[in-house]
Amino acid sequence: xxxxxxxxxxxxxxxxxxxxxxxxxxxxxxxxxxxxxxxxxxxxxxxxxxxxxxxxxxxxxxxxxxxxxxxxxxxxxxxxxxxxxxxxxxxxxxxxxxxxxxxxxxxxxxxxxxxxxxxxxxxxxxxxxxxxxxxxxxxxxxxxxxxxxxxxxxxxxxxxxxxxxxxxxxxxxxxxxxxxxxxxxxxxxxxxxxxxxxxxxxxxxxxxxxxxxxxxxxxxxxxxxxxxxxxxxxxxxxxxxxxxxxxxxxxxxxxxxxxxxxxxxxxxxxxxxxxxxxxxxxxxxxxxxxxxxxxxxxxxxxxxxxxxxxxxxxxxxxxxxxxxxxxxxxxxxxxxxxxxxxxxxxxxxxxxxxxxxxxxxxxxxxxxxxxxxxxxxxxxxxxxxxxxxxxxxxxxxxxxxxxxxxxxxxxxxxxxxxxxxxxxxxxxxxxxxxxxxxxxxxxxxxxxxxxxxxxxxxxxxxxxxxxxxxxxxxxxxxxxxxxxxxxxxxxxxxxxxxxxxxxxxxxxxxxxxxxxxxxxxxxxxxxxxxxxxxxxxxxxxxxxxxxxxxxxxxxxxxxxxxxxxxxxxxxxx
Amino acid sequence: xxxxxxxxxxxxxxxxxxxxxxxxxxxxxxxxxxxxxxxxxxxxxxxxxxxxxxxxxxxxxxxxxxxxxxxxxxxxxxxxxxxxxxxxxxxxxxxxxxxxxxxxxxxxxxxxxxxxxxxxxxxxxxxxxxxxxxxxxxxxxxxxxxxxxxxxxxxxxxxxxxxxxx
Lengths: 573, 166
Description:
The complex is a heterodimer of chains A (573) and B (166). Chain A has 3 domains: 3-188, Rossmann fold (3-Layer(aba) Sandwich), CATH 3.40.50.970; 200-363, TPP-binding domain (Rossmann fold, 3-Layer(aba) Sandwich); 377-546, Thiamin diphosphate (ThDP)-binding fold, Pyr/PP domains (Rossmann fold, 3-Layer(aba) Sandwich), CATH 3.40.50.970. By secondary structure, chain A is α/β, with parallel strands linked by helices. In chain A, helix 3 packs across helix 17. In chain A, the strands form 5 sheets. In chain A, strands 4-3-5-6-8-7 form a 6-stranded parallel beta sheet, with helices on both faces. Chain A has a 6-stranded parallel beta sheet with strand order 13-12-11-14-15-16, sandwiched between helices. Chain A has a 6-stranded parallel beta sheet with strand order 18-17-19-20-22-21, with helices on both faces. Chain A has 21 helices and 22 strands. Chain B has 2 domains: 4-90, ACT domain (Alpha-Beta Plaits), CATH 3.30.70; 93-165, ACT-like. Chain A, domain 2 (Alpha-Beta Plaits). Chain B is 27% helix and 42% strand. Chain B contains 4 helices and 8 strands; from the N terminus they run E-H-E-E-H-E-E-H-E-E-H-E. Chain B has helices at 28-38, 67-79, 108-117, 138-148; strands at residues 14-23, 45-50, 56-65, 83-88, 92-103, 120-125, 129-136, 155-165. In chain B, the strands form 2 sheets. Chain B has a 4-stranded antiparallel beta sheet with strand order 2-3-1-4, covered by helices on one side. In chain B, a hairpin with a 5-residue loop joins strand 2 and strand 3 (56-65). Chain B starts with 13 loop residues before the first strand and ends with a strand. Classes of the chains: A alpha/beta (573), B alpha+beta (166).
């Protein structure tokens, strides 16, 4: 696939040394991983080097999640190493999570020696067969001659175009074999040419139609975070004064207090945001993908609107809804192109539309009611926002707490919010917070989690202790698998099948037994005190907050309904 | 203003012949087959052969789907890293080959006449059976197979479709 273009600085290295050298060349400063038989050659070279830190997690899944959030929070390529067989299969959930959210990663797995591949050898599994559908690309390296090219292409593919995880399966004999290595060599990939610049005519065409529309709306997705162009998007929004809604993955692209931002849209989006997407006559989609959790009932979605869709992945365009003005390109470049041409057009005055949405917000603000003895989970999230604000980077697990965090934390910059959006992987929270802390040692790393999710990777508290990564886990404990419980209450006549978590660990002792600090809080005062002590302790912490058990995430667009058919919170405003 | 064009109302399925030029690397064929099965697309026929004097292979796929599905198939194929080019054929010559084994106790002169009517011929004779082959448009080959049924064929092997733009 790739042709060698030039030749210089040849070195003679074994396969494992090549891996180390490639990491060095790519400025990798941390690798998350777990050793095992088939990957031992590589670990032997890791032992001998001092270019990067290796963080040994307690489970391979957590290693991949940590590398994933390292990438999410830093914008760099995350790197993880696992062994063959079960080492690799444990990594699959991590790969799939990163793939669904387009996170750049390189994951290397050991494989049995090439001579025994296909014989059902010990710890052999068809790793590339499994990872094919949950990676951007993968390689099984049959020959040491290919390893140099594969390593370089893996990093290149991971971070360019629509980013994503790339998996390299490395047989044990290949990691020991000697070969030529020169990382400065360039490799041409004639079959892979992502479109970066948007079509200028189409961009002008789109701007013209925006200028003449009456109720235009920016619908901003994770692509705006991945392409690092939030400043240009904010500029564009303020220049042509058009309201904005964000997807879960785009939280922080706009400042939470921006007058043009009407919050998150979708199944648990803000009332005004969902009304906006229902009433707009011009959807300007920037790096989002019309996910089913956003669109609701498809046959009525955006029925009144023309659609402009900017995306680097042509396959995302017209996949779910037909696009009137498709623009393929890197959003960072396209946003600049938009800015270049805005002055060519005279835009309508959209203030009536803006005011109309402000009325919606006034009518149904995002809110919760403090009407019980127990703390409301939303209060805890809001409170952390008040106390820590921009000093904290926020991870979540998956469930009710995740939606409340997306709703109530005041995100003011992109890469502040690490969450499994597409795949919805419970158990990511703690490893995410760990990867975030490693990438951003000066920030406070907070994981909002539930009493269900936290148990899926709780063992990583030890890893945090071992490597000095003080992350703060705030468990919003309602003794339920809350989101499933909510659906059971609403759609299954409250038959709570396997969602009641009666027997639970003593989280305080659990934290302490793994070298952390633990708190159990019932009141606001206790919460503030625990958060303060947790930060000061400089240790991994668990703050277990006993919250109202049957609190619902609202608004809610029930499955199969259109975005404007929301179940709303009843009671005082 | 109602803009119906945002929605996919098309329900008419159409047959599509695709040529996919790929680099012979990184299990490209399984990537393509996996893509079809993972996303629920149909494969009616699939043939692969190297493109002479290059590092590429041509995969000819015949699929059936509504316009939106075909559009996605083409885009998803293009997204695969080892895929160089995907062509949706509009004006195309298609050929399919069939090999059919017929027991000797059947009326061989009838079989011979039929085979010739479909650009075919007897290829091999043993003391138990004859093998005939025919190469023609896929539709005609399907017809040929239908009419040859009554001669109790022992085995039928089809090659799958190859195609070239006129």
